């Protein structure tokens, strides 16, 4: 359903320098070359004698060849559905099983079993008291291939829902953390910023596409606003850091095969080289293929990925690593629904695919909707029962990471990376018939982005101080266009598929628009971790950020857009001083207190006409220029205080927080379901206050019982007066996020067997900004069991598992607001969550 043909767009209108380093630390460039040169020569010598290693390096270099081979055709583009309007909310939550206090330094995570790998994770300096983690034991309880976001959903304050049980369908995925949406959080994989996580974004890469879940070694999420050194264009309410596993020291591999309901299956294969020489060179490459059958309608959700990683130790305390990820997806999407559709048509109202004849005749007015589709006054049946809709993406990401100990006190950490994405997002459009006489066409948003960046920092230990400073730079070239392709006449050829190819019956016969932008981001940070006394540490720092986007529409079909000139120009979000203070007090081995305060800023969102919460999506150039004069970037102050208790049998954590979000720019839909009008609005100010409590009991060996509860009171703090109407929003609750959540999880391990059960309760979520429509609360439960047989013949760690998703087959709404939330009343902008599904998995190492 085209939501944006007619739009109404409105926006209301340090410190004393440290002492000079000693001479031995000067001339770092010369010292670095002297230090690394002999190791490089050793590596090259190894490569000459190791064809397998040479092949791996070629694979890791593959992205540059792929970039060079890309066509110069400027087909970038945007999808029908704007990402969910995002409110914000603050800080706080805690590990399901808090660990003993960790030192403030880079650490190595080691799994207990020899088949697991060792991984050096992120270089975060801010205290780990302000973080929560997902353990490897918890990760194993999920079906292999499950999105990391679903794994985080067990932690307090996190709400993740999706239309598919794996959580890899980006159109139906919906993540909130303490009220902050997924495009307001900083997310990294091995230090590479993923930026905007929303559907069909041209400013980032989906986490589900950026790493195979089986290759994840560590997963950490900030309770507060996140550390200043983390690179991200959109951090307002916290950070999520994913670390990949390192290659194993011994040669071998792993194979995993899963089968599930609705003809779903998944295959994972990994090969490890082991140490190839005395210097410790090692690598792995892995492949995953996920094919999810759809529980409603026809089509499937297919995704395949390749990961590769090479690690080269340098001396005793330094290393270099290279990494590469490729992913490709072709996914049919589930249809949009509304409160009215659910009440009148029921919970299963699929697309008509593959019944092209019926869809054709309905669009032509020659046939009535089938039973189950009719009886909704005022709703155009052809918009409810579209033929199909889907998405296809190809992603590449790769880079180099250097972790170098230049002296006993000075370390240098650098990541160089690149990311390329091409995406197509489609649906059957009955408003623009094909020129050959077919009553509809395939409307396709075509996107393209290429990001390249450098993140580098130095860390120096001086007495009680650990001082760190660094710079992050990223360049992103972005494109977004909209095209319509011809469908065949009935009986004169196979219809186009939602996942392409789209030019089977010729090139696009209609182009609505095309946008081109260039975004440059520069971030500087400086911080100091001071050990005030034994057990008491103060972290204080700040970051400066400048993000400039220039460009806009370079093609406009005025007949289609209804505008003589679409937005084009530059926007700059900048702030010289964004502070972060963290105080961590380990009173003794059991008790800990912590405080975290920070200010963050988000870069302006970049999106095309009628899509998402961007000023570039307004109706014309005049509106863009008028809004630009008073436009302010979104900022947030986040305050957090917490207490943690840790012992052998009990781990407990309690946090309270408050967040003030200033100038949140959101999109609201007004008008009827079939004639929507979208508005881009500066909501002025949002306040959120909340608390989380988390208790984990381990009364006997092998038994773990966790319970957590979270509360968030999020409200809009001012009324909004637009040319589309006055809305008394002051005091209204934020949309899409449940105020109350309760989560319980029980797991028991005896010898090689493990069984687990978890259940989450999500309270009512408001759907309209005026709070006159809402979705009721619900329970969602999952269960599973696993048995580890150990070694069988030549195979090691042979494991069989069985999982049930949505154990009680609860009917619930997952995604809300993908086409914007309504200002008031109902609207076709939500999706149902996945039904009960069963999965079985067998895996083994060798």
TrEMBL record:
Its main location: membrane. Residues 132-238 form the TonB-dependent receptor plug domain. It comes from Gluconobacter thailandicus NBRC 3257. Residues 115-124 have a biased composition (Polar residues). The lineage of its organism: Bacteria, Pseudomonadati, Pseudomonadota, Alphaproteobacteria, Acetobacterales. PROSITE patterns: TONB_DEPENDENT_REC_3. Residues 83-102 have a biased composition (Low complexity). Transmembrane segments: none annotated. It is a multi-pass membrane protein. Residues 77-126 are annotated as: Disordered. Keywords: Cell outer membrane, Ion transport, Iron, Iron transport, Membrane, Receptor, Signal, Transmembrane, Transmembrane beta strand, Transport. This is TonB-dependent outer membrane receptor.
């Amino acid at each position: 359903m085209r939501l944006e043909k007619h739009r109404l767009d409105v926006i209301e209108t340090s410190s004393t320098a440290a002492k000079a380093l000693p001479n031995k630390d000067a001339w770092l460039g010369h010292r670095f070359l002297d230090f690394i040169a002999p190791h490089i020569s050793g590596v090259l010598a190894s490569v000459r004698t190791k064809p397998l290693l040479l092949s791996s390096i070629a694979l890791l270099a593959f992205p540059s060849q792929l970039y060079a081979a890309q066509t110069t055709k400027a087909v970038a583009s945007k999808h029908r559905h704007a990402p969910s309007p995002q409110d914000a909310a603050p800080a706080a939550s805690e590990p399901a099983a808090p660990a003993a206090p960790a030192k403030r330094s880079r650490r190595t995570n080691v799994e207990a079993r020899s088949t697991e790998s060792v991984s050096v994770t992120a270089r975060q300096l801010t205290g780990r008291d302000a973080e929560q983690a997902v353990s490897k034991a918890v990760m194993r309880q999920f079906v292999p291939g499950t999105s990391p976001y679903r794994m985080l959903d067990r932690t307090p304050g996190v709400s993740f829902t999706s239309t598919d049980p794996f959580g890899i369908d980006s159109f139906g995925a919906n993540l909130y953390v303490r009220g902050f949406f997924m495009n307001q959080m900083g997310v990294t994989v091995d230090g590479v910023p993923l930026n905007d996580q929303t559907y069909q974004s041209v400013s980032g890469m989906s986490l589900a596409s950026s790493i195979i879940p089986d290759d994840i070694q560590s997963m950490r999420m900030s309770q507060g606003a996140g550390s200043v050194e983390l690179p991200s264009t959109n951090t307002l309410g916290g950070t999520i850091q994913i670390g990949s596993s390192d290659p194993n020291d011994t040669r071998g591999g792993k194979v995993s095969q899963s089968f599930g309901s609705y003809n779903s299956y998944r295959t994972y294969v990994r090969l490890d080289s082991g140490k190839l020489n005395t210097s410790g060179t090692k690598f792995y490459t892995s492949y995953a293929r996920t094919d999810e059958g759809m529980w409603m309608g026809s089509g499937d959700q297919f995704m395949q990925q390749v990961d590769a990683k090479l690690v080269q130790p340098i001396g005793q305390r330094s290393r270099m690593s290279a990494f590469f990820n490729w992913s490709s997806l072709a996914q049919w999407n589930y249809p949009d629904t509304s409160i009215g559709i659910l009440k009148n048509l029921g919970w299963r109202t699929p697309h008509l695919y593959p019944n092209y004849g019926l869809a054709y005749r309905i669009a032509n007015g020659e046939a009535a909707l089938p039973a189950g589709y009719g009886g909704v006054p005022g709703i155009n049946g052809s918009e409810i029962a579209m033929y199909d809709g889907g998405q296809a993406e190809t992603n590449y990401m790769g880079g180099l990471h250097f972790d170098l100990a230049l002296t006993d006190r000075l370390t240098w950490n650098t990541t160089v990376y690149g990311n390329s994405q091409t995406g197509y997002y489609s649906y059957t459009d009955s408003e623009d018939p094909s020129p050959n006489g077919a009553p509809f066409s395939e409307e396709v948003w075509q996107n393209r982005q290429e990001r390249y960046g450098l993140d580098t920092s130095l860390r120096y230990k001086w007495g009680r101080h650990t001082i760190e400073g660094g710079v992050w730079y990223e360049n992103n070239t972005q494109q977004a266009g909209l095209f319509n392709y011809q469908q065949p006449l009935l009986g004169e050829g196979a219809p186009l598929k939602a996942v392409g190819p789209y030019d089977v019956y010729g090139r696009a016969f209609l182009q609505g628009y095309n946008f081109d932008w260039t975004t440059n981001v520069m971030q500087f940070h400086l911080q100091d971790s001071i050990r005030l006394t034994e057990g008491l540490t103060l972290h204080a720092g700040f970051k400066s950020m400048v993000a400039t986007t220039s460009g806009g529409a370079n093609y406009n079909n005025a007949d289609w857009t209804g505008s003589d000139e679409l937005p084009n120009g530059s926007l700059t979000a900048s702030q010289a001083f964004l502070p972060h203070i963290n105080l961590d007090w380990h009173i003794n081995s059991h008790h800990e207190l912590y405080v975290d305060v920070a200010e963050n800023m988000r870069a302006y969102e970049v999106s095309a006409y009628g899509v998402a919460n961007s000023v570039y999506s307004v109706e014309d150039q005049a509106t863009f220029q008028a809004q630009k004069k008073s436009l302010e970037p979104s900022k947030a102050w986040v305050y957090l205080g917490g207490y943690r208790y840790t012992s052998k049998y009990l781990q407990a954590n309690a946090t309270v927080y408050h967040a003030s979000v200033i100038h949140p720019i959101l999109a609201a839909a007004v008008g009827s379901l079939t004639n929507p009008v979208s508005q881009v609005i500066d909501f002025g100010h949002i306040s959120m206050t909340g608390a989380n409590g988390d208790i984990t009991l381990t009364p006997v060996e092998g038994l773990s019982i966790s319970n957590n509860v979270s509360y968030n009171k999020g409200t809009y703090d001012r009324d909004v007066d637009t040319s589309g109407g006055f809305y008394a929003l002051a005091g209204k609750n934020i949309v899409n996020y449940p105020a109350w959540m309760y989560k319980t999880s029980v797991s028991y391990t005896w010898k090689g067997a493990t069984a687990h059960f978890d259940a989450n309760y999500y309270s009512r979520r408001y759907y309209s900004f005026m709070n006159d429509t809402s979705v009721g609360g619900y329970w969602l439960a999952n269960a599973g069991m696993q048995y580890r047989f150990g070694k069988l013949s030549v195979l090691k760690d042979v494991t069989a598992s069985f999982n049930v998703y949505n154990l009680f087959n609860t009917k619930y709404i997952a995604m809300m607001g993908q086409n914007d939330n309504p200002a008031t009343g109902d609207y076709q902008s939500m999706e149902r969550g996945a039904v009960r599904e069963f999965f079985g998995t067998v895996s083994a190492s060798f």
